[in-house]
Amino acid sequence: MAKSKAMNISILVFGSENFIANLPDQIHNATAFSVEVIANLNQVISRIKMMPPDIILVQASINASMELCCWLKEQTKLSWIYCILVEDRPEQISQRNRYGWEWDFEMTSTALKQGADAYIWQIPEEKTDRNSALSANNCLILAQLTVGLRKAQKYRDLIQKNDVLSGFALADSLTEMKNRRALDQDLPRQIQRSRNQNNPLSLIILDVDFFKKVNDTYGHLVGDRVLQLLCARLRNNLRFQDTAFRYGGEEFVIILPNTTGEEALLVARRLNRIVNQEPFTINNQVSINVTISLGIASLQDEDDEDGMSMLDRADKYLLQAKATGRNCVINGRRSRVNGQWSMVKGQESMVNGQESMVNTLDFLASRHRSRN
Fold it and tell me: Which of 5, 147, 207, 304 has the most CB atoms in a 10 Å sphere around its CB?
């Protein structure tokens, strides 16, 4: 039982105070694990849902004991809970004494089918050799607890391994950013949370300008290093709540929770400036100037729950940014300057003393689908 202390095992008893008083002293006097006693079915189910125990001891004579076992059996996500049913019903004990081991086997089979993992008989008070029988019965209960502890330990080890594997599966090995699979999982959750809490949500799609030229000129290893340095620079300049993903190749997506379109524009412009303000140093001989183009989209009422329409809208603005001349930010908000439409550009110009946004007409995007 020494392992249980490190594991912080919890035991839930569905039974009366008298029932737990007849259990082995190692259970209710132990400091190696926590023990909680509940005698109401609704309360015990609520407790299991809120904070699942590792082991549950069920008093057979308490009302709805078998109902709880059946309920546990149906909960596939709680199948790791080890359920020990302790038979203390006088009529069942009497029939066991009358019919012998065949009755014992039949009752055990029934209990296991109904959802218990173990079925143990309680020693009746009137048994003549009760002390020796009680000692043996306590050993059996403690042995079953040990089985439950092993099951809980294996489950926790499995969860830990799954967390590690999930981390690998959702991470991009080159840049150490989250990958496309992680984006597909996270974006719908962010959209649901945003709508439930009535908070704004925006995202940025950015692409490295002329990245093919980097690979063609310096080789793919240098290109990989550029992506690593770019991602490090992005990570160091994102806000705590923002999450970046490698969308594919040299394209990245950044989810901006609780962020309006105007605030997303400020974030995108800052990232654009931080990337192009100084070269990426590969080694003592090679430094490469890198720029990025960015498209922004904010969550709208008509957007789908998976985020595909948001991504598509930001992607179209990214294409417009590339068609416009690259190294710029476009978010779809136009302003009229000197009779012409303009949009946000990373390299700002001043027109009539006001910061202007440079853009092309929408139809240019459809003519420049190929990205460099």
Answer: 207
